[in-house]
Amino acid sequence: MEIYRGIADLEAAVGKELGPTEWFAVEQDRVDGFADVTEDHQWIHVDTEKAAGGPFGATIAHGFLSLSLVPYFVSQLRRIEGAKMGVNYGLDRVRFPSPVRVGSRIRARTVVKTADRIDDNSVQLVMRTTIEVEGSEKPGCVADLVSRHYF
User: Fold this and answer.
1) Backbone angles phi, psi at 108, to 5 degrees
2) Is 31 helix (H, G, I), strand (E, B) or coil?
3) How far is CA 104 from its chain centroid?
4) What is the DSSP letter of 148?
5) How far is CA 136 from the centre of its chain?
6) How far apart, in whole angstroms, are the C-alpha atoms of residue 69 and residue 131?
7) Is 79 helix (H, G, I), strand (E, B) or coil?
8) Cβ–Cβ under 8 Å, residues 139 and 128
């Protein structure tokens, strides 16, 4: 766990990789729950029988499910102390290079790409998080999360 205590710490962290996290199992009940919440019930995610004969050989997690886990993973790798507030500002580049098959395990690494001061008391971070899939050469998700932190 890396702890940042102010804007100067965040600026000094640019380029430093954190991680990996512990492995996280992707199970069918989580994928089904995500399908219910997002109304995305495409068969490659929820129909285990049909998906077994499909292009991935099993059901796969939604790409956006993988993306939604980015804050969870990042919270295991770093903490920002002294900030009055932090907000998600958006996403830059997001890609899903490899499917995340149900039953597989994933973990993440992250790196601060940029830390740009907004003013004397706030900073905008861009953190690239890569979600690795156990046994796969390609990651399941690579996302640049943009956040703002106010001290």
Assistant:
1) -135, 155
2) helix
3) 16
4) E
5) 17
6) 9
7) strand
8) no
For the segment 13-69, what is each residue's pLDDT rounded down to a tens digit? 999 999 999 999 999 999 999 999 999 999 999 999 999 999 999 999 999 999 999
Residue owning tokens 């089904």: 32
Contact yes or no for 88/74 (Cβ under 8 A): no
Q: In terms of Cα–Cα distance, which of 25, 30, 17 is closest to 129?
A: 17
β partners of residue 108: 131
When pLDDT is averaged across residues 77-103 and rounded to a whole number, the result is 97
Strands (E) across 26-84 are located at: 78-80
φ, ψ of residue 50 to 5 degrees: the values are -65, -40
Q: What count of Cα atoms within 13 Å lies in the side-chain half-sphere of residue 34?
A: 20
Distance of CA 44 to the CA centre of its chain: 21
Q: Do 131 and 68 touch, CB atoms closer than 8 A?
A: no
Count the Cβ atoms, other than its own, within 10 Å of residue 50: 11
pTM over 0.85: yes
16, 50, 77, 79 from 115: Cα distances, Å: 12, 46, 17, 15
Tokens in use for 125? 């971070």
